[in-house]
Amino acid sequence: MSNVEQEEPATIQFSSLKRGETEPQGPLGENDILQKLNEGEITSEDMVFYEGLGEWKPIGEVFEIQEQISHFVDDGQDTQKVAIAFREVSNVVGKAEDIFYIAVQAKAGLLSKTKQCVVVTDSHVFILHEKRVGYELEAHLWKTVTNTLMRDEGRGLGTFSILLGGEKRVDICHIPLKQVQRLFQLSQEIKQSAA
What we know:
Number of domains: 2
Number of helices: 4
Oligomer: single chain
Radius of gyration: 18 Å
Shape: elongated
Low-confidence stretches: 1-9
Number of strands: 11
Distance between the termini: 39 Å
Strand content: 25-35%
CATH architecture of the largest domain: Roll
Structural class: alpha+beta
CATH topology of the largest domain: PH-domain like
Strand order of the largest sheet: 2-1-3-4
Mean pLDDT: 81
CATH class of the largest domain: Mainly Beta
């Protein structure tokens, strides 16, 4: 039995702004927003913002996205990082491409203070790198991935690796082991269905 403490996933803190008003309300949790909607204090056309969203958007639009994002945080992922990764990948994939899973590093590497995300779709594996200004997506088509590997680093963390054409290996370390196992399982299923 392990005594490793698990980090609680970060909950998104929203600010809301009623149409025609200039002072936002917040911070509010998702349940607060839903309660205000149910009680008629705000409408789905009023605006909402949270860190990582980029700009104020209508509540109805954001909560549709939030509903999609919520099924990616089953394994303790940082919700804000998942939201950012979802947004960045959604901006570059076609409507026919489905996002299957988003994994988030538990801690950054020695030389970096930012966490990377691994996003698995039916056509690509994406690695999201946070830059000083904005984000950079590294995209690899599954047909260029010759193999995937996982390694247990100990202390509940692991490394997910992809091999590209037998020549290049990309390692993403310090991912919670449960997420690494899920990435590996999905990658094996995708590679088998493509064969």
